[in-house]
Design goal:
203 residues; disordered C terminus; 7 helices; alpha/beta
């Protein structure tokens, strides 16, 4: 079960940045969502400030108590910049990045690299908690991860071509569930962590 982090200023601005913490509005939204979080046997969070803060506000425990989930997309020198800024300054580089899964004009990680990294984590038992495979049939892992990690996991799990990554949207504080095993994953995506009719965004 993959939960995307609550909104923060960087996500609102479409900024390549995973070090900006939640603002009060995002923290309130996560606390509102907490009672609607499904139970799990294991809990994990990505290393970004917004993932760790979201996990804390959701009541999953202190960061040191959680397993380590994959980090977000490593975008090199574009980190901290807005997409529109980069597109205006480097249109050819952005076009290559969005069309070629092997391209990494920012000096960071290519889309292929992201898909392979997240796919390896998923197929290994989502990290398996650093232990041997479980003896019982079903183990539920819930991880708070960056939207790009959710999209990469879905792309890998369903055997989609890399270009499909760009066609997937992951809203804040939504739940994406993958059930099954390597080579046979089923998907339930975009489930809001709010009661029916409630507002999950600003407040």
């Amino acid at each position: 079960m993959l939960v995307s982090p609550a909104l923060n200023p960087a996500l609102r601005e479409a900024r390549f940045d995973d070090d900006t913490p939640l603002d009060p509005s995002g923290a309130r939204a996560a606390r509102t969502a907490a009672p609607h979080l499904p139970a799990a046997d294991r809990y994990a969070a990505g290393a970004s400030a917004r993932c760790r803060a979201t996990a804390r506000e959701l009541g999953l425990g202190a960061p040191d108590d959680l397993e380590v989930a994959p980090a977000g997309w490593r975008l090199g020198r574009w980190s901290g910049l807005r997409l529109d800024e980069v597109a205006a300054a480097e249109p050819e580089a952005v076009a290559a990045w969005a069309s070629d899964p092997e391209a990494a004009p920012h000096g960071g990680e290519s889309l292929r690299g992201l898909l392979d990294r997240v796919g390896g984590w998923l197929d290994s038992g989502a990290g398996d908690g650093g232990s041997a495979p479980p003896t019982r049939g079903v183990v539920r892992l819930l991880a708070v991860v960056e939207p790009a990690v959710v999209r990469a996991a879905v792309t890998h799990a369903l055997g989609l071509p890399p270009a499909a990554f760009w066609r997937l949207d992951t809203g804040p504080l939504t739940l994406t569930t993958l059930t099954g095993h390597p080579g046979r994953w089923n998907l339930a995506t975009g489930l809001p962590l709010t009661p029916a009719g409630a507002v999950s965004g600003e407040g």
